[in-house]
Amino acid sequence: MFRWAIIFAVIALIASLLGFGGVAGLSQQFALILLVVALILAVIGFFSRGH
What we know:
Layout: H1 2-18, H2 21-49
Helix pairs in contact: 1-2
């Protein structure tokens, strides 16, 4: 899931450099959402392994 967040962040960067503001903003939001979800799942996974 971190890979998808990085991919969307790269898409946002490229789109902003090319002048596509709407696509860049949308890709940035997807990247942020995926990053937060991945971090939450990683923390849950780390804590559940101890039990």
